[in-house]
Amino acid sequence: MTQTPMLEVRGLFKYFPVHQALLGSLTRRAHSSVKAVDDVSFALGHGEVLAVVGESGCGKTTIARTLIGLETPTNGEIVFDGKAVGARAKQPHISLKQLRQRAQMIFQDPYESLNPRATIFEIVAEPLVVHGMIKDRRERIAAVKSALEDAGLRPAEDYFMRYPHELSGGQRQRVVIASAMVLQPELLIADEPVSMLDVSIRAEILNLLRDLRQRRGISIVFITHDLSTVAYFADRIAVMYLGRIVEIGPAREVLKSPQHPYTKALISVAPVPNPRLRRERVILQGETPNPINLPTGCRFHPRCPVAIDICKVNDPQLIELSAGHQAACLLLTK
Amino acid sequence: MGEHWTLFLRNIQEFWRTFRQNKLGMVGGFLVLVATLTAIFAPALTSYDASEIIRDSNNRALTFAPPSVHGILGTDDAGHDVWSQLVYGARISLVVGFMAGFIAMFVGSALGIVAGYFGGKIDSLIMRITDVLLVIPDLPLMLVLVATIRQMELKISPLVVLIIVIGLLYWTSTARLIRSQVLTVKERQFVARARAIGAGHWHIIRKHILPQLMPLIVTNTVLILSTAILIESGLAFLGLGDPTRPSWGTMLNFAFDRSAISNGAWWFYLPPGIAILWVSLGCILLGNVLEEMLNPRLTAHHLEGEAGMIAIAEAESKG
Questions:
Q1: Superfamily for B22-318?
Q2: Which helix (H) or strand (E) holds A199?
């Protein structure tokens, strides 16, 4: 890839300090923190869709929030279109405000992400107001109208004066998407955009996102816990476990021949439409370990079905298996 | 601006439709409305001036004349018409109470929003000040302050002193209430979304936090008004009002000082007492009902909204 990637994340860390009780700080125990994101790096090309997959609590939402600047990273760098984000960076950088003009986020819960006391018009026009763009009233109405119609809400005028509580979940998520698209961003960060919706509406919203991507060529970071939606339209998949990417690669390849035992387990339990093709399921034992006290060695070893002794000691790094396909497992090094 | 106006009218209509069904609220509204109208149209309701001395046929001042002898509510010790004092007193009582209440509401909301939204050191500072003010008993503190400010012989009306002292001391409960609400609102996802869009603090407070607080602020204001009127009456009763412009509290003070009670002149001390009760009861009833109504979770709002949309669509197709 000779082009500069749309988005590049280098060595991202996000630790949340745990507030200790007075007694704890008196006894001088080591200051602990939740390691939500622990050394994550990836790149996203122009017009590419990267799916970040993992179970709840693995840090995928934290990554999304950090990308758009809702959380400040503990360490690491986010590079947007060749420019580091944030004023701290010395190289050519862009401010958060500039980033937010070119990158937008879609939140998980369409029932909560719309201000209940704002009309749909106000909500969709808000990014324009915030960034002081398209000041002319007629043009602004036209922009909102076309954004709503692109999001499948037509006739758009019918929605202008409505309030979010008058709309269904699917309609609300369309409003959220319209609002995100009104600035014509280059990057969309979608944090589980369909997980709160009825199954019947999911496909519509996913189709909408796919259409937008095909027509506008925007890049999407798609965060989900649902592998079936990933297979639907991701170009590449990053599988996360406890704050770290354990496998990343082209979507087809990862789904067809997963290399990391965790990915294998995830894929084996994903529902398959054809009952005759039922595979052998790998059911993981136990719970996700506490992200405050991570296991030593490979963080997956307490639940790994194929763990060997060395997994308790050595922390595996991502290794290149084939072009663009990487996994972090000690068993793969041999 | 057309659509904002339509929306506003729609909201008002919707509000009235729900409000009308609430009997207690209607009673409260009626009480407050009557008091306000009385204050506004005071000159039309009486033919005497509040400081005019009523004289009998022998040109002697008619003192402690019962209602059967003179007018609606008789006269006081100096021969002033009590009814005139009452209606003109409504102006003073309501103006002082409302102004003080609005100042308290404004200061309390502003400080509560700043404390809740920004948190950290600003929050601690504001909340410690609030704690201190909450701990000191209101009435003695206000007494001392009003008396001290008066001693300084500044060229301000005693009523303005009252307004400022009540307004600037009575915001603590509002500030705490608003702050706690801001703490929950600012964690909601639409605020995160606004931040993700790139909105600044001022935009978020104005467009996302404040609208969620409005019901609380409106309700709280109405309740604060009643307290402010009561406090004004208390201070005036203790002699801190303006004797040249008597409020209801000042009337009670006069009645008490000039032994209206031992003279059995009930028409002198009962009416201002009932008037104070009237207004504060009205405010409290209204406030409680507003609180119930403006909580969006308690209304069948979505259905009303649909009806409103249809109404607007019909109106537009006609016009």
A1: MetI-like (1.10.3720.10)
A2: helix A199-216
